[in-house]
Amino acid sequence: MIKDPSEFRREAHRMADRIADYFEEIGSYPVKSQVKPGEILSLLPEQPPALPEEIQDIMADFERVIMPGITHWQHPDFHAYFPANSSYASVLAEWLTAALGQQAMIWETSPAATELEERVMQWMKQMFGLPLHWTGVLQDTASASTLAALLTAREKCTGFITNSEGFPSASGLRIYASTETHSSIEKAVKIAGFGRKNLVKVPVDKNFALDAEALEQAIRRDLSEGFTPCCVVATIGTTGSTAVDPVRKTGEICRKYHVWLHIDAAFAGTALILPEMRHFADGLELADSYVFNPHKWMFTNFDASAYYVSDPELLIRTFEILPEYLKTRTRGKVNDYRDWGVALGRRFRALKLWFVIRNFGTEGIRETVRKHLEMASWLSERIGESDDFTLMAPVNFSLVCFRFTPSHIREAEHLNELNQELLARLNSSGKLYLSHTLLNGSYCLRMVTAQTYIGQHHVENAWKIILETSKKLNDEKYMG
Length: 480
What we know:
Structural class: alpha/beta
Helix content: 40-55%
CATH class of the largest domain: Alpha Beta
Radius of gyration: 24 Å
């Protein structure tokens, strides 16, 4: 057991070396863990240790038991799902966060955490061209931010009656989102008490973006049937294909019918640091709330979700509660962020953002994001030139959706099966990791080019592996 600072210093130096080694060696690991279900569990003792164990012994088991079960999200050949980026500066800040152990629920419990969060949220408004009248707060995830938005919309819509008396037996409050919206929206609808039947899925256009005309028709139909339109969730960069909903048109519809507009830009929001990408957010000033995740594409390790609102008083009124033990003389003079979301307890998330923004600089972040976009563009061009692959969605950001489509196979079902097998082979190789989605019923491969330290050669090598694996698969199945 570590008993004093000198022992801690010794072990901390060893840990720093191990972390530095990990960053240096990460390319040598299989990207996706190769273990089978239950394999890690079988290596872990069923009973906890009764006596203290040395850190060296714990680390030995870390290497033997834990590392084989790690899927390496920071690997430059990790192209699945979405980026969950870290960086050297972010890791260093996380060490300090753990050491300080701040419980940043109110200003009194950590003035620095509170005021740094306030300043960092102001910085990011400037960096990303967000409306300056917005006010921001850090949440843990976009799911929590979306839940906060729906709860605030609910209270505004019901005159804060739901908070005090609960939902009326037949409230009929309706939430609207596209058929491509993230699953967290449906989860938030359930948690907030709206009921899944009151989530209206709006059709999308040929580019998988919300159809604004269909949205207005749905709202008008609900009004005629006695329902109350409460909130619309629009997306800048859907999870499946990074489609972009028409923000301005949607915002104008929401203003016309007095409906709350929440914008989910969890993944793609980081791209707005580039002035040339801000056309995707045209009309953003019409939104009531907005979220993007620096812990996805802004080189800041999980968790840090930036949530902005047009009217912070509505947010605070939705969540505030004041037991005696939290009353302070500074209340009303400062931000007490425990009133700005679901959680009372709050981590010192602003510290790592402060480190990252200062260590990269705004221009450094722009340069890296721009390179990621260029890599995605390069990949999409190679796919467009190929006779055996097809782009399945517009490449708006750093995600490319494509499909293996050899000319001799016409049946959609067979193509779906072939692409599933191709993905399985690619991922089991350990050389790269991709994920999939369904677009109009077609099974597609998704490849993200947004890891912190990814280079052009990683993307070129991934494309080479995809070509080689697909050819071998095709030859085995159809040419053997």
